[in-house]
## 1
Amino acid sequence: MRATMIYGAGDVRVEDVSHPTLIHATDAIVRIVRACVCGSDLHGYNARTAADPAKAMGHEFIGIVEEIGSDVHKIKVGDFVIAPFAYADNTCEFCREGLQTSCIHGGFWGNGDVGGGQAEAVRSPFADGTLVVVPGPVDPELYPSFLALTDVYGTGYHAALKAQVSAATTVTVIGDGAVGLMAVLSAKRLGAERIILMGRHQVRTDLGITFGATDVVAERGEEGIARVLELTNGAGTHTVLEAVGYRDAYDMAVGVVRAGGVISRVGVPQYDDAPVGRGSLFGRNITLTGGPAPVRSYIEHLLPDVLSGVVNPGLVFDQTVSLENVADGYRAMADRTALKVIVQP
Amino acid sequence: MRATMIYGAGDVRVEDVSHPTLIHATDAIVRIVRACVCGSDLHGYNARTAADPAKAMGHEFIGIVEEIGSDVHKIKVGDFVIAPFAYADNTCEFCREGLQTSCIHGGFWGNGDVGGGQAEAVRSPFADGTLVVVPGPVDPELYPSFLALTDVYGTGYHAALKAQVSAATTVTVIGDGAVGLMAVLSAKRLGAERIILMGRHQVRTDLGITFGATDVVAERGEEGIARVLELTNGAGTHTVLEAVGYRDAYDMAVGVVRAGGVISRVGVPQYDDAPVGRGSLFGRNITLTGGPAPVRSYIEHLLPDVLSGVVNPGLVFDQTVSLENVADGYRAMADRTALKVIVQP
């Protein structure tokens, strides 16, 4: 079958690899119906060197179950499934606490002997724990929203949930990428009435307004901070959902968060150390939270309103490429000519 | 009257100063009945230079109202009052959210034209907002517990509350000083059944056991982390209450916190930058919270069980000095021959 591999920076190739086979009794083989390219895929795309080992790509996909192991009981052949970006047994002590991204036996697609989702098929470990079945019949119009549930929607929701967004909290969302826009949608769904979106790509911030943003701040750095403070009587917002991952986004978050407020990060930090002392977090009782979203926890909760059409997170996709042309999708996202790209095997 | 001033490191003096007078209509003059020396007083005691301007000391005190301004309506002359370590109007938007340490008009004792509490009397700004009346008659046996309510008990409680300690959470408390011990007591009161106290002064950790600690870990650094992980099947505890403020305590907190858990800091950080990236906080969804405790919010809530004798936070005091001998109190705490010292004017 055909599958996406990355080599050095910018070097994405579609190659012939063996069709996956069952290894463990709890596995399933999933034929990929659609996959997509993630903002986090671009970290490697931008920064890898030729010395890095080749890696299978893709951690966001939906598909149809082709084959199951002898110890798979909930998932059936023929099921249409949504895969969260991390696989998990969904039974360990962390999974039971709703933190499937810390599953003792879990992991991430495209590592070790587990393939990636930008391919024709993939072996899913812990099929019963990992995969969520979409009750049929399945409307192809909803594929983009199902893809959003594999990662970006659950990730934006995680940001808002960890920040304890409610009708009582004002919100700043930093970043107008797909995750930032999903954070806007999630904040709106959790009742927020004031959502300031920091982003400078008007097509994206316009979509943010569709999702519920009430204000858009295009400025960045000190100017961006000043603008948010101006919009909030100098106090900042109760919650800041940081969907970028760079250090300047952290600094902006510290600058716009209200005393007693929460910075919730879901952009994977591209830095290690940052200010946490008296002048940044401690003195004003700022809470810093977030991390890799346990999307598996959220899919079942968020799916009904997707199925009924109450929300349309799939709007974040603005381009589709064939699997053979997946490299074009990476390039479009890296060049920001696409917001988020669907890959069709 | 006599009041405590600090000059250079280790240079604490009791001096003649003017008796405080009302300045604003919302002020009260409080005659100090007891004050105490705080662990945070020692930061200046250890680190000041002779070039630093002299500063009035003491932010923990109880006393009797001597005089009130024309716009003071709740507090009456003769009231026995507990003062939180920060004064606040208790009406601004932050105070209404329970964050009196970020009061727009508030501040800290011993700054500007507001004196310190290690003195014979002090002027309290915003008397109605700041001071909490103890319903009389007042039992002198309870003075130590009232003093604990001015800072260390509320601070330990803040750590536990911000960490969302409950019967469902395991707890590590880092630090066996007065605040750490009050964090133990608070965690116990919030229902925690497993409380690991990290500290190496047996008199103090014994008191910690009295307050509810179930395990004591005397080791520090990597050894301390290993010991806590050993006690928790390798997972760490859901919550970590950090009551020290040094960078190595932060690193220990990161080492012993469970994935998905909370580090709650109430020791004033003596550092600015610390690891917050993928390998420390983000990757395991660790929440970092805490800050200066809005003790004013907590005194009324915690007072009834002090009055009824259900809890005795005053046990953290193990020495009393006269105001004239306050320097001995600082020295005893700096030398760790005293856990916490009462000052009697």
## 2
Amino acid sequence: MKIEILAVGSELLTPSFVDTNSLELTRRLNDIGLDVARKTIVGDDIGDIVACVREAVRRAKLLIVMGGLGPTEDDKTREACAAALGRPLLYRPEIYESIRERFLRRGRGDFPPSNAKQAYVIEGADVLANPNGTAPGQRLVEGGCEIVLLPGPPKELLPMFEALVWPRLLERGHGSTGRRVLKITGIGESDVETRIAGLYPPSGPLRLTILSSLGQIELHVAEFSREKDAARFPGLESLATQLRDRLGDFIYSTAGEDLETVVGRLLKARGATLACAESCTGGLLSGRVTSVPGSSAYFKEGFVTYANEAKIRALGVPADVIATHGAVSAEAAAAMAQGARRASGTDFALAVTGIAGPDGGTPEKPVGLVFVALAWEGGIETHRNVYIGRRDQIRFQAAQRALDLLRRRLSRPADT
Amino acid sequence: MKIEILAVGSELLTPSFVDTNSLELTRRLNDIGLDVARKTIVGDDIGDIVACVREAVRRAKLLIVMGGLGPTEDDKTREACAAALGRPLLYRPEIYESIRERFLRRGRGDFPPSNAKQAYVIEGADVLANPNGTAPGQRLVEGGCEIVLLPGPPKELLPMFEALVWPRLLERGHGSTGRRVLKITGIGESDVETRIAGLYPPSGPLRLTILSSLGQIELHVAEFSREKDAARFPGLESLATQLRDRLGDFIYSTAGEDLETVVGRLLKARGATLACAESCTGGLLSGRVTSVPGSSAYFKEGFVTYANEAKIRALGVPADVIATHGAVSAEAAAAMAQGARRASGTDFALAVTGIAGPDGGTPEKPVGLVFVALAWEGGIETHRNVYIGRRDQIRFQAAQRALDLLRRRLSRPADT
């Protein structure tokens, strides 16, 4: 079944617009084994829209037209579709009344007469109700092509697609898709590629995609089953197991979770508490830990000790450690972690100190140099890293390393 | 001049892909008064690509084809364009040699023979050098249409567009565009709309766009001038002045800066220092302040006092303030700000305490309730706010409010 999407609107051809609608529609179609063959984006010129509709109707079995159904001068999808198919537009007073009522109910003042154009329906089309806006959708058949017209705003389009378009497509789909996202940190993309070499499935129902972003890598596994609404995806399970064998504890989640969520769950499971001491990350690490709902159960306190005096006073970092080794040193990181743990009385404390740049680097201590430390009852560990990138990228990677240090320690079965 | 973009690649029709290439190309074209009339995204089916090229060549004066020039089986743009135009592909040994050399220089092992296909050029086409990858681009003319083939990866495509396509388009453009971004906080979108009513320019060279996001609103002003490389945009200046008159100190930047950057500049100009005490924002506020390069000049310390014991010990919040009014109260916020200022010895201190949710709300203190305080030598101010949204949205808005409180105080001419 050949499917095409036609997105209408001159704003879609300007640089500030990202078309999220068709990403979402494509995902839902792919899930049941339907592919989008072509996507066209066209401006508000009625001649251009007419041409696009005419061409697409000749090629496609399903054409989804999005946008251009509103009340303004620029909204020409209704008129263009009618012209492309050589059908009249019919005025439907009951639609006019429902738009008018909706408008007046919201107390927005006088009802603009321009809204009347939204009450016109292409001859032979069914009306698709829009519970979140004024412009209704339409559905009609021309030759061998089903045409669906939907309004452009995502909060109107997506619920309408789910409720009125999707259920009918389910019957025409070929099956269902299972998905699994493995998240990895502490290893580079090329090392991951080397480790999983030979596991890429040949083209077929099972797919493996690697997505690399800052400080983490995602492996997306998807399996398509010809069974509609399949309960099991054996190829996906087997591939996920092999990936786990190859990547071991570099994998921090097999369910697509954030690193901070995983760390939070591990802390909670032990009934353990955490404090953070930060210099170069400036609050980002505590901010990530506390972004998780319910984190107050384990996170007690963060010390953003940017100034050296704060490191000394709040964390008890000895002044001579800073004088001898510098504030960016393994010794300072260790003292910060131990001081944070002591001051807050927590089971664990993480510390980060480094040079996030763009200024402040020296030949011995370049921009990107970061020391990370973890203190617990049994001891202390520190790690030296040099990250590449902009200030925000260095900061994110430093926080990521700190969280991963804690994850690895919490994942050990025996000792703390 | 009718311009079309054709993006080739089945991956572009999957949900994980966002087409940033054409956003950037569109921006550059718009800047000189050239509009994109149509954008088409097509998969790797050679018949579909041939059809797209044939149709577009009939309509457009310039067709930019992106992607599908690589060495793999899926890369069919070269073959499809040749077929669509009825021209042969000619083998160019010098291209083969340069691809081979580039490959071997990078020490990636044996040269895969599949790379040979990248050495074929459509008859009559000029070769466009690709300094950042193997696949060269091509440029040719068919009838009245210029066709440019560019590789898909942004880091290859964008530099080639800038160096080889853009300079020639400049001559065919109609002028240049000036842009200004005003950033606003502390007022809702509908209030902004009411205040600027009547200032929207009629359709013409001057454009005003409102973009609303979490806790802030952007007004984008753009003026197109028929003069190429115009130095002045008088309509833009005049509209920006009127917008400033209407919106006053709700505007925190007329140069598109972040609120934390503006606050940092104001602190630096005074030689003043800052500390932050945070509960519900959990480090986000300090994290935003320290995201600005050079912030160590004014930011001294952050206290992420999540637990009540931390508020009492680190900030000296009186235990009976918490017992009487609760940790989420104007009294607690004020005590936190004063305590942070006292402990860190800074000129200013901001404090935030609230309920970010999703749990922890009560009828008297619902999720989204946030108290923000600012302490300075002359005194203290506190504000109560109730934000709507998810946990991350409530936290961002709370930090935004705190930063704006400081911005407003620092913007006063006379007292501190």
## 3
Amino acid sequence: MKDIIIIGVGPAGISAAIYLKRAGLDPVVIGKDYGALSDYPEKVENYYGFGEPILGEDLIKEGINQAKRLGIEIIRDSVIALDQIDDHFKVKSVEHKFQSKTVVLATGKKRQTLSIPGFNKFKGKGISLCASCDGYFFRRKKIAVIGCGPYMAHELDVLKEINQDITVFTHGSPLLELVSFPVVTSKITRFLGTDKLEGIETEDGNIYQAQGIFVAIGAPSSIDFATKLGVVVEKNSLVVDHTYQTNIPGLFAIGDVIGGKLQIAKAVYDGMMVSDHIKTYLKSK
Amino acid sequence: MKDIIIIGVGPAGISAAIYLKRAGLDPVVIGKDYGALSDYPEKVENYYGFGEPILGEDLIKEGINQAKRLGIEIIRDSVIALDQIDDHFKVKSVEHKFQSKTVVLATGKKRQTLSIPGFNKFKGKGISLCASCDGYFFRRKKIAVIGCGPYMAHELDVLKEINQDITVFTHGSPLLELVSFPVVTSKITRFLGTDKLEGIETEDGNIYQAQGIFVAIGAPSSIDFATKLGVVVEKNSLVVDHTYQTNIPGLFAIGDVIGGKLQIAKAVYDGMMVSDHIKTYLKSK
């Protein structure tokens, strides 16, 4: 029986592991995907401490090495099931099975993607998945936001501080939020451009100029384990109390998956903070 | 008139500057000392993202370079005075003067202190850390100012309006400023007195009468500035609300100086979080 299994090898999970290890505990970290950061095509510029921008993927690797250096056990495997049995948890990955008194969910939120011609070509060259990350680069450009719900509205809130030349594309979905910008509801058929993004072509044959596109469709999500266990989810985020504990005793969640700012600094902070609460929880058992 | 001046070049201040800049604002960061991290003899192992441990001093340098790369104005100078005038602030450093709508205190927790016998005993009973706060109480007493640089000179400027019976003690350091008062360069070995401060003993065996001593070594800390402005301080931390604002509108504080975990991850998080609140504050003006 393990004391602590952390699912996720990103900033939140590794930061938690580092603080727990240094507090004399023995966390095990399991995860394969690098999560949101590995998809992120731009280098990271806004996480403190790096004179030169660092690729998300490289940052994740640094974090894993940092944890290993401290003697933390890291298992590079995909977790495929998480179950609760009595007062503990069963964690099943492709190649391993564990039991643990506590589990920390730190797998992040699946990021946006679109199967539209040009999406992959222009991702990072005009197409962005994060308004607060990249909005500033497009402060004097024509901007499009793709989405129809609260996530789109949120990105719009961020962007309108920087730029007023914004059009919302719902990509065929009904608009669920009131917005004060032009709205195009026709489906997007293609992203246009040569080296850089230049425009959007829609099903009705129109072409719209756009140098920056922010994708914010539906909600950014991957919360299957938690949903299955009956964790309270609100607005596509796991609900946790002030100790980062979900409504299931011993099940903690940190990082993007609990919402708030989807930022490395916040994930790292969560990881630091949860360690104290896990110590307290284990002591109370 | 600047929008935002951040005092402090450590993790909290630089993180705030990065987020503000990327939100389209134009923060100016002023600071000279590296703060707590530079004194820290061990390498940093628990701040996420470094496969190899990093010296605190090197981390600070990385952060400064990171900010500069983003076009943030960084002024390597000691702030020696902060005053509130109407609805804005005047910031004075050794070589510059600024006015700003908001100020962020991020200089860490280091306070003026001296490991000299009698210091703690007479702190508040003759030994003061703020000339403009306490100078008036000593208007008819013998006063000593301890310090050798611009901060000392600034405190002297304040005090000489109130009292002319002043001696400057450099406590073994070379005098860096021209002053029109007697100067003692010998090291201080003891503060003398029974209930109240009565004098200063120096290494060369001399004893000087003094009922009031003002310590002005190096540069003032955030707590020193804040105390002078009437910010509520509890347990040696500045009290801020959930927006990181002190009881003085437009004066924000982040990092070690507001207490909580004295950790880099927390300081960086504070910096990220305060940026939104500063944007909101500036917009409300």
